[in-house]
Design a protein that fits this description.
- This protein starts with a helix and ends with a helix.
- The protein has helices at 2-16, 20-35, 77-101, 172-182, 184-187, 217-222, 227-235, 250-257, 284-288, 293-302, 311-315, 321-330, 349-357, 363-367, 371-375, 382-400; strands at 47-51, 58-62, 65-67, 107-116, 119-124, 128-132, 148-159, 162-168, 191-199, 203-210, 240-245, 263-269, 274-279, 305-310.
- It is α+β, with helices and mostly antiparallel strands.
- Residues 321-339 have low confidence and may be disordered.
- The strands form 4 sheets. It has a 5-stranded mixed barrel with strand order 4-5-6-8-7. Strands 1-2-3 form a 3-stranded antiparallel sheet. A 3-stranded mixed sheet has the order 9-10-11, sandwiched between helices.
- The protein has 16 helices and 14 strands.
- The protein has 5 domains: 2-100, NusA, N-terminal domain (N Utilization Substance Protein A, Chain:P, domain 4); 104-168, Beta Barrel (OB fold (Dihydrolipoamide Acetyltransferase, E2P)); 171-242, GMP Synthetase, Chain A, domain 3 (2-Layer Sandwich), CATH 3.30.300; 247-319, 2-Layer Sandwich (GMP Synthetase, Chain A, domain 3), CATH 3.30.300.20; 328-400, Orthogonal Bundle (DNA polymerase, domain 1).
């Protein structure tokens, strides 16, 4: 029995990756538990069971004296077996926890196993399961059961069921790790990712810098005919990616971050980390971007607050560009009258200015928006957002009739 037990333990070690010593200790504990049921011990007496690591021989000791009367082949075999199974399961959970604890901050691959109350449960190569919580899912991505998926490991925690592995498809570092996998120059440390700002499912800005003057940081990330960045865009199911060249000159950095808009002038407040950016009137919508995406992501990327103004507003009263847009909307041209946001009930001057600044310029923009897009604007809650969307759809339909 001794050699057979040792052979089983070694087989489990090979097949499941559980260390031999961990298994032997589990078996010793199980046999000790079983032996205590057939040996009368006084409160002051101690008992111990040992397995020889080389021969597999089992020996029992009471107060350090070996007991020869115990037949381990007969005593409480079923009890010992259950305890051993439990210990093996615990050891397997510990192996999984340790393995994935080392993968926090990395990308793992798996398949979509099932959907649970809005969460995506991922089978991680048959070893364990990970979960992508609803908040960690990109709103524009859709997955089907059995589909291959890659995700960023945010956290690994222990619970009663074992390791709980929290995955993400929205974390900015998912994009960073994808670039490391796709761009050898980044993986090798020649090109460095300086900063990332991301609006999951919509757009990401990433700034890069080359430590080698002969290596173009942006060109390395784009790849031959755009292959490298295209692979990442495909992985993110169409999310747009702007690759920005990092520059120590903050003015040049801001210009690059606000691309594709052309910047005319920049006034800096270095103490407050604020910049007033002047653009031509026809560049305003590009600088702000759809729903304010471009300026918001550029601001996060460089870590400065950016105030976009047109040449007109900068030359006259010091009003933000969004307020200038508001003035334009107060007296719209006849052809655009039906699309004016001013038609929405309950939208005051401040809310209208905020909508315009966020990139919502006409009723169609509101009608096509999601609730979460509008609730990001100060002063608009979920109920108000839904009301604005419903009303915008009605007004837009009337305008087309």
């Amino acid at each position: 029995m001794s050699q057979e037990l040792l052979a089983i333990i070694e087989q489990i070690e090979r097949e499941r990756g559980i260390k031999k010593e961990v298994l032997i200790e589990a078996v010793e504990a199980a046999l000790l538990s079983a032996a205590k049921k057939v040996i009368d011990l006084k409160p002051e007496e101690e008992m111990k069971v040992e397995i020889d690591r080389e021969t597999g021989k089992i020996r029992a000791f009471k107060n350090k004296e070996e007991i020869d009367s115990i037949d381990f082949g007969r005593i409480a075999a079923s009890t010992a077996r259950q305890v051993i199974i439990q210990k093996i399961r615990e050891a397997e959970k510990e192996v999984v926890f340790s393995e994935f604890q080392d993968k926090v901050g990395e990308i793992v691959s798996g398949t979509v196993y099932r959907f649970d109350k809005g969460n995506i449960v991922v089978d991680l190569l048959g070893k364990t399961e990970g979960v992508i919580l609803r908040r960690e899912q990109s709103p524009k991505e859709e997955f089907k059961q059995g589909q291959r998926i890659r995700a960023y490991v945010v956290e690994v925690k222990k619970d009663v069921k074992g390791a709980q592995i929290i995955l993400s498809r929205t974390h900015p570092n998912l994009v960073k790790k994808l670039f490391e996998l796709e761009v050898p120059e980044i993986y090798e440390g020649i090109v460095e990712i300086k900063s990332i700002s991301r609006l999951p499912g919509e757009r990401t800005k990433i700034s890069v810098w080359s430590k080698n003057e002969k290596v173009d940081s942006v060109g390395s990330c784009v790849g031959m005919r755009g292959n490298r960045v295209r692979n990442i865009v495909n992985e993110l199911q169409g999310e747009k990616i702007d690759i920005v060249r990092y520059n120590d000159d903050i003015r040049e950095y801001i210009k690059a971050a606000l691309s594709p808009a052309e910047v005319s002038e920049i006034k800096l407040n270095k103490e407050a980390l604020k910049a007033e950016v002047i653009v031509a009137d026809d560049q305003l919508s590009l600088a702000i971007g759809k729903h304010g995406q471009n300026v918001r992501l550029a601001s996060r990327l460089i870590g400065w607050e950016l105030d976009i103004r047109t040449k007109t507003t900068a030359a006259g009263a010091q009003e933000p560009a969004a307020k200038e847009l508001l003035k334009e909307k107060k007296e719209p041209a006849p052809a655009a009258q039906e699309s004016s946001l001013a038609q929405l009930s309950g939208v005051g001057e401040k809310t209208l200015a905020a909508l315009l600044e966020a990139g919502f310029k006409v009723l169609e923009d509101i009608a096509k928006a999601e609730i979460q897009d509008l609730t990001k604007i100060k002063g608009i809650g979920e109920k108000k957002a839904q009301k604005l969307i419903d009303e915008a759809k009605k007004l837009a339909r009337k305008a087309k009739q």
